[in-house]
Amino acid sequence: MSQTRTNARKAAVQALYQWQMTGQSLVEIERQFAEDERFKDVQKSYFTELFHGVPKNLTVIDEALNEFVDRPVDMVDPVERAILRIGAYELQHRLDMPYRVILNEAINLAKYFGADGSHKYVNGILDKLAQKNRAIEIKAKAQAAK
């Protein structure tokens, strides 16, 4: 996985966190990020896809997550919530991307941004969501491993 795509996910977590906490417009938040010097090492098209894709599909994403979280999605820690929403978006909309890559990236984001142990929470939820959304892919991987 390219570092610029990983950086796009990191920026998307921060931007979604800001959106969740402030309710600012996506356009305004995106403008702030585009002006940031650190944004130059980001795959901008992927950042835009995640940052606009999550809010656009929020109802479907949160419904999928609600099946596996231990409390309403809105009550999940805001950093973990942003990471879970990105992971759920990718599992649902980026079928070209292996589910293991999505889970690994989400775990690393939780280790980077989240509280101690939050990566285990994120992994547990996204793994269950992957079992549901990517059952055919997971079964094929298991068959290939035999």
In CATH terms, the superfamily is: NusB-like
Structural domain tally? 1
Number of strands: 0
The first-to-last residue Cα distance is: 26 Å
Cα radius of gyration in angstroms: 15 Å
CATH-derived architecture = Orthogonal Bundle
Q: How many separate helices?
A: 8
Query: N-to-C SSE series?
Result: HHHHHHHH
Could you tell me the CATH topology label. N-utilizing Substance Protein B Homolog, Chain A
Quick recap of the structure?
The radius of gyration is 15 Å and the shape is globular. By secondary structure, it is an all-alpha fold.
What do you see in this structure?
By secondary structure, the protein is mainly alpha-helical. The chain has a single domain (3-145), classed as NusB-like (N-utilizing Substance Protein B Homolog, Chain A, Orthogonal Bundle), CATH 1.10.940.10. 75% of the residues lie in helices and 0% in strands. The chain is built from eight helices and no strands. The chain has helices at 3-22, 26-35, 44-56, 58-66, 78-93, 99-113, 118-133, 135-145. The longest helix is centred in the first third of the chain and has 20 residues, at 3-22. The relative contact order is 0.13.
